[in-house]
């Protein structure tokens, strides 16, 4: 499970942008190992893979 950190305003600070980028890369790599991937928002799930 990962938090959605990429749905808002892009922060000015390099450290914050780096965190968002690294979190996205981690999520992509983890999804390659999974048979199913879901996005859940407001209690509603969408199957991505």
Summed up:
The protein has one helix at 14-33, and strands at residues 38-41, 44-47.
What does this structure look like?
The protein is of the alpha+beta class and 49 residues long. It has one domain. Helices cover 41% and strands 16% of the residues. It is built from 1 helix and 2 strands. It has one helix at residues 14-33; strands at residues 38-41, 44-47. Strands 1-2 form a two-stranded antiparallel sheet. The radius of gyration is 12 Å and the shape is flat. 0% of the residues are buried. The mean pLDDT is 90.
Overview features:
flat; about 50 residues; alpha+beta; CobU/CobP; two-stranded antiparallel ribbon
Question: How are the elements arranged and paired?
Answer:
Elements: H1 14-33, E1 38-41, E2 44-47
Antiparallel strand pairs: 1-2
Protein name: Adenosylcobinamide-phosphate guanylyltransferase
GO molecular function: adenosylcobinamide kinase activity; nucleotide binding
Pfam family, one: CobU
Helicity range of the residues?
40-55%
Structural class: alpha+beta
Shape: flat
Share in β-strands? 15-25%
Secondary structure tally: strands:
2
Nearest-integer average pLDDT: 90
Biggest sheet architecture:
2 strands, antiparallel
Question: Termini separation (Å)?
Answer: 15 Å
Q: Unreliable runs, pLDDT <50, ≥5 residues?
A: none
Total individual domains = 1
What is the succession of H and E elements? HEE
The Rg value, from CA coordinates, equals: 12 Å
* Individual helix count: 1
Strand order within the widest beta sheet: 1-2
